[in-house]
């Protein structure tokens, strides 16, 4: 089966449920909109924020949407996708992103990173926004390094915003006594839950619409099955919807019905 034939069969202008959507094309269900609003507040306040959610809940999508809305003349995004680089790698990335040559010595790298963040704000008028993805994988030393960066000048407040994005275990880790000093500085916490049934229906309809189909493409029974199997998490909804479309196409069905959705649930191991 070719994607081109499936697209042609269903009259799609593009394949629906893809991940490479421009921020303006994203479906803004309530949980997503709330996360974006809270991230925006956190950036405005130069605060530390924590966004958590299960795998595929839409954490990174919310970060993308929120940072895309920021004025690049007034903000600089420093994105760290992989905490396994350790403290030195993390600080090295921040210094490099701000156009400086990182110090060779770890002992001088931390104050250099703090100074670079402060200078970006004071001299260039841009707020650095440090986004750490997969933050549940940070070790305690890295967590402490983040706290120390916010210590730069206690009298004038933080010159930057920091967003820790990770799975629910991040929330639990921050409650550990050893991380109490960082935990006390967190100004915003938000857990992205799965979508409600009506939101999943809107989500599927939205993706079908931007692919060129404004009529009914998924039956109500199919949507209910997909929602329940995915627990309302967008990434799983995408995966199941594509599998269900493929099954419906193989059966030469005009719409995705309950049978096609059931095949998708079985194939993807969500049953």
Any overview of this molecule?
It contains twelve helices and five strands. It is of the alpha/beta class and 271 residues long. It has two domains: 3-17 and 195-267, Orthogonal Bundle (Helicase, Ruva Protein, domain 3); 30-192, Rossmann fold. Strands 2-3-4-1-5 form a five-stranded parallel sheet, sandwiched between helices. It is elongated and about 65 Å long. The two termini are 24 Å apart.
Summarize the structure.
The protein contains twelve helices and five strands.
Topology:
Elements: H1 3-10, H2 30-44, E1 48-53, H3 59-68, E2 75-80, H4 86-97, H5 106-124, E3 127-132, H6 140-149, E4 161-166, H7 169-174, H8 180-183, E5 186-192, H9 197-210, H10 220-230, H11 234-250, H12 258-267
Parallel strand pairs: 1-4, 1-5, 2-3, 3-4
Helix pairs in contact: 2-3, 4-5, 9-10, 10-11, 10-12, 11-12
